[in-house]
Design brief:
Elements lengths: L10 E5 L2 E5 L6 E4 H9 L12 E10 L6 E7 L5 E4 L5 E4 L3 H31 L1 E2 L2 E2 H8 L2
Antiparallel strand pairs: 1-2, 2-3, 3-7, 4-5, 5-6, 6-7, 8-9
The protein binds zinc ion (ZN) (2 copies).
The site of one zinc ion has 7 residues, from loops.
Length: about 140
């Protein structure tokens, strides 16, 4: 397979246990359809919902490396990060660095969800007035000891 951008032959690499076809020239990466799921699974924990992945779908300027059909572009999870994909579900093309950006966005999202979860827990504890066996007032007093 050749790079859809600069026609350099793609090299197969193993990244986080996932087989990825990478362009040695522009650092773009081809992921088969299921491999984006695998990439996400390296970050997402199962209890967190993945949500909608594709936003603002439009025509791409590159062709699929497998069937050579015009690809489509979408914004990854409502972020301003364009990803190309084959409408026949052959896979995804990530321009150089985009896979790291996806992982960063996912980590941030997981962090946000965790934070809001623990904030919710803390709020519930405050509401009950008890945290770790002591009333919230005792705990505040403890802070000023
Ligand atoms: Zn390339
Ligand atoms: Zn295709």
């Amino acid at each position: 397979m050749d790079c859809p951008r600069d026609k350099t032959a793609l090299e197969t690499k193993i990244d986080r246990g996932i087989e990825i076809d990478q362009c040695p020239s522009c650092d773009g990466k081809w992921l088969d359809q299921h491999e984006l799921d695998l990439l996400e699974d390296t970050v997402f924990v199962t209890e967190l919902k993945k949500g909608t992945r594709m936003y603002a779908i439009r025509e791409s300027d590159i062709n699929c490396v497998k069937c050579n059909a015009k690809m489509a572009t979408f914004n990854y999870r409502a972020y301003n990060l364009p990803v190309d994909y084959c409408t026949d579900q052959h896979g995804f093309w990530l321009d150089g660095g985009e896979d790291k950006e996806i992982l960063n966005l996912m980590k941030k999202r997981v962090g946000d969800l965790k934070r809001s979860k623990s904030a919710e827990k803390a709020w519930n504890k405050n509401l009950l007035g008890v945290a770790g066996g002591k009333s919230i007032f005792e705990r505040i007093k403890d802070l000023f000891k």
